[in-house]
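Moderator note: this is an archived Q&A kept for reference. The question asked for a predicted structure of one protein chain; the sequence and the answer are reproduced below.
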Amino acid sequence: MYLDEYKIVEIVEKTNPSVVNVSTVHLLDIFPFYSVPIKGIGSGVIIDSNGYIVTNNHVIEGAEVVEVSLNDGRVFKGKVIGRDSSSDLAIIKIDAKNLKAAELGDSSNLKAGQFIIAIGNPFGLRGGPTVTIGVISAINRSINTEKGIMEDLIQTDAAINPGNSGGPLIDLNGKVIALATAIIPFAQGIGFAIPINKVKKIAEDLIKYGKVIRPWLGIYGIDLTPQISSYYNLPVQEGVIIVKVIQGSPAELSGIEEGDIILSIDRTPIKNMIELQKIIQNKKVGEEITIRIIRNYKTYDIKVELSKSL
């Protein structure tokens, strides 16, 4: 595909007003009763014209002061509305109206090799945000962090400069398809980003509740392997064997029992607990799902209404 530089410039100019600098002050305790202020920087994306901004949780976590600098030079005090450490996402609110919100895209059909533009505003300098171009190197990546494993990330070779955490990745239609979250400091040109569909879902909860409301099924299970299947003479070799159903959980209220083997959820095959957890996490509280199970060598479809996790 031919890259039209005029089109890229047009996309960048369209997106720049929606990219902000996020600066923070943390207090580092040196001695008892003595603290030193430590400054931090990052980027963010305006997702609502009334002042809601999404950024990374690690950018603002533990900050005593949060300031947001807009592309036009204005500076506002930022209020942390909600944050989620497991997804590394946070929402900041500033007291401003009629802001230019970024156009959010769809990350469900991203492909390796697709061109993207990475934009960040790490220093709030004159001249506007920084811009780099690259491709999506891979999708569905997992990385280990201090907060645990981050899954379903996009990997890119676009240079993600220091302080670009929280900045957008843009497709060639000018839509945000991911939010930059991490770099590997000793690797060459490897950056990671959170797919925008996940960002939208979590941002909605953070704005509405101040935290992420995750759905709950209420089971403990183990992966069914060919070895287990052979030993117990089971009719299938893949799935999840339920070893405990939590009292009062959606699973119990729907009639799911210990010993049942989960084969699929909403017709999506389930091979192990990791796949089951991913599917449940992508559902909403109150959503009804259909779980196909095997019980006593017979197959059943059970409808379960997911509730809020405990």
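Archived answer notes: The radius of gyration is 22 Å.
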